[in-house]
Amino acid sequence: MENQWLISSHMTGGGFGGCTVSLVKDEAIDTFIKEVGVTYEAKIEIKPEFYIAEIGDGACKIS
């Protein structure tokens, strides 16, 4: 599996299949979900769930 679309991924939690927070190029989100989903389900035998989030402006001072 070639992963030119993945920028970074961090494993968080370890139980029940674990969870990752992954930074993926916008144009590759569908490919990431398909390829990771198929591979994960084949190895773990659990259908994965994916949540897409967008980066916000970050913290700022409230006036």
In short:
This protein has 63 residues and is of the alpha+beta class. It has one helix at 29-44, and strands spanning 6-12, 19-24.
Choose one word for the global shape.
extended
Order of helices and strands: EEH
Q: What's the count of strands? A: 2
How are the strands of the largest sheet arranged?
A: 1-2
Cα separation of the termini: 49 Å
Cα-atom radius of gyration: 14 Å
Helix content: 25-40%
Main sheet makeup: 2 strands, antiparallel
Assess the beta-strand content as a share of residues: 15-25%
* Poorly predicted parts: none
The assigned structural class equals: alpha+beta
Mean pLDDT: 84
Question: How many helix segments?
Answer: 1
How would you characterize the overall build of this protein?
The protein is α+β, with helices and mostly antiparallel strands and 63 residues long. It is built from one helix and two strands; from the N terminus they run E-E-H.
Task: Give a quick set of tags describing it.
63 residues; alpha+beta; two-stranded antiparallel sheet; extended
Please render the helix and strand layout as text:
Elements: E1 6-12, E2 19-24, H1 29-44
Antiparallel strand pairs: 1-2
